[in-house]
Amino acid sequence: MKVGFIGTGSMGSLLLEALIDSGSLAPNQVYASNRTPEKVIRLQQRHPGLHVCTSNAETAHNSDLIFLCVKPLQFKAILDEIGSTLRPDQMVISITSPVQIHHLESALCCKVAKIIPSVAHRVQSGVCLCMYGSRIKEEDRQLFEHLLSPISKPILIDESFVRITSDLSSCGPAFLSFFLDQWINAAVETTGMDRGELTWIAGEMLLGTGKLLTQGGFTPLELQKRVTVPGGITAEALALLDSSLTGVFHRLIATTHGKYKEDLEKCDAQFGGPGAD
Ligand SMILES: NC(=O)c1ccc[n+]([C@@H]2O[C@H](COP(=O)([O-])OP(=O)(O)OC[C@H]3O[C@@H](n4cnc5c(N)ncnc54)[C@H](OP(=O)(O)O)[C@@H]3O)[C@@H](O)[C@H]2O)c1
């Protein structure tokens, strides 16, 4: 299988390198192009054998699967650029939430899919949200998820839930890191303890909490109860968090969904209206 990457910025290069480092792809199976070619050349230097393509059409022509790793409003121009080189047996995969499966199917003759990856794939962790177009057959899906499995847990989701699930799986590492950063800053300021040591303790705590939720049979509420002694220190601090954070997650969801709606309207306009073919 030959796999193309159009756009090797933050997420494109992360996916590409995670797939190579996990052994899921050999460098010589990879074709890549980027608006600023130096980024692909640097990847080739790190992974000898990787093919640097001088145009997106060259990447598309040479690949069975093509990951489009650009920002939502850059999609239409790239689809116009590669559309005529694509064949029906190829598969194009968007990695961005506002570009809809129907946008891709209306613009391309090939199979299409959408995934929302996570930065956690760099360490072979995290859920990869997968959505498939009508031209994808069961064997295409199996082959594709076989490719992703060494770096992630691929799960099928309904496209209408893409934003809320992306908030958790894809934005979640940033949200939780924000929380930890504030917490560690306060700990350093209050106690003078070493930031690196506190960060390591926090990371191990997060890893263990994740395992308790995924393998240990706990729900988040059960975990709070398991740690809390009535009238104890954790209980007092949880009461503080509860009163301080009232409504914050509803506002967070309203914010991510508001931005998504804006981007979706811009994509609809580029692709000729909602649901247009
Ligand atoms: N970062 C994440 O954790 C994450 C997670 C899930 C999904 N995503 C999605 O992934 C998409 C990309 O995000 P990102 O963080 O990787 O952005 P990014 O770092 O800005 O990468 C985008 C890349 O696309 C390249 N590009 C732009 N126009 C191009 C063109 N016409 N032809 C070829 N390459 C082109 C850019 O090239 P230049 O070098 O010239 O700028 C840049 O390297 C976004 O839609 C985002 O929603 C990101």
Automatic annotation (TrEMBL):
It holds the Pfam family F420_oxidored. Its main location: cytoplasm. SUPFAM superfamilies: 6-phosphogluconate dehydrogenase C-terminal domain-like, NAD(P)-binding Rossmann-fold domains. It is found in: Cytoplasm. Residues 159-262 form the Pyrroline-5-carboxylate reductase dimerisation domain. Residues 2-97 form the Pyrroline-5-carboxylate reductase catalytic N-terminal domain. Its EC number is 1.5.1.2. Keywords: Amino-acid biosynthesis, Cytoplasm, NADP, Oxidoreductase, Proline biosynthesis. It catalyses: L-proline + NADP(+) = (S)-1-pyrroline-5-carboxylate + NADPH + 2 H(+); L-proline + NAD(+) = (S)-1-pyrroline-5-carboxylate + NADH + 2 H(+). It comes from the Bacteria. Pathway: Amino-acid biosynthesis; L-proline biosynthesis; L-proline from L-glutamate 5-semialdehyde: step 1/1. The keyword NADP applies. Belongs to the pyrroline-5-carboxylate reductase family. Catalyzes the reduction of 1-pyrroline-5-carboxylate (PCA) to L-proline. This is Pyrroline-5-carboxylate reductase. It comes from Paenibacillus cineris.
